[in-house]
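Me: Here is a favour to ask of a fellow structure person. Could you put it straight underneath, so I can go through it closely?

Assistant:
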Amino acid sequence: MTDAELEQLDYTFSLIIQGRYRFLSLTIPSDVLADTCFVTTRFDDQEEGFQRRLDERRAREIADYIDNGFGTIPNALILSAQPEAQLEIKKGRRALQFLRHPKAFLVLDGQHRVWGYKLAKSQLRVPVIIYQNLSRKEETRLFIDINTKQRPVPSELLLDIKHLADLEQDTDQLKRELYDLFNSEPESVLLGLLSPAEKSKGKITRTTFSAALSIIEDIIKDRDAEELFPVFNAYLSAMYSGMERLGVDASITTPNVFKAIIALFPDVASKVKDRFSGRYSIDNFADVTDEIFERTTKSRFTTAGKGYKPLLDHLALALTKSFSF
């Protein structure tokens, strides 16, 4: 299709000036953006590409979010008009005109949203910022500025406030309530070792705690936090005591160590249930875990940096070896 055959589109806009840059602010239908925007990834174009590889799963999530009518996406796309757009500002009017060309606009920010618009069946009006007459150097610098100056909200904070938006699943609520008990109850072995809303060195974040409990979700999902807290607190107290004797108690806040400890819980609790008829006290847990720590070394905990499973496998093997009639 020649340029003469391409559809011409008109939209009203506002001119914004920031420092030496002038750009246009307007809204454009999502289907138009899907037809006119493109990206140049570093993987596809080593000479001039500067964007990251796109994630189809993320784009599909955006499309589903749009089609299911869950909410709104108010963030503006940041675009750079290309020569193919033949963008013109009409004289005497607050309107601009461009061609519906597949290479009309290079996306500087919002690549996955554009792909989501392509995949979505529904349409919506999207806020857009359009820069004109940028060189590739200027486009690249803007891309760097946009992606380094803005700071994403920490996942710990999002998890901490998720219940305020009424977006929690049952298991999310359970994990949150259990974490809060460990963070507030005077007898909690983790008291002072938790950081609910942000990452903090030497602290267990809500994200790490939730990810660890997800490993054993099937055995806790039908329980409540008040019921689980004394059991897990007794278990973690016994494990912490054993780690203290090895001189590695500080590593309990290391994500992979904490995940391995939580993942080991079903095996240890099973032995406690058999030996002590389900009386889950610190002493009864220690009766099982002490034998584990007699068969492990400090280095197993201090080198747990490449996933939790190697440490879990080692602790589980030590637990098996401790079995006796």
The CA atoms of residues 181 and 190 lie 10 Å apart. Residues 42-50 have pLDDT under 50 and may be disordered. The first strand starts at residue 8 and ends at 12. The first helix runs from residue 30 to 36.
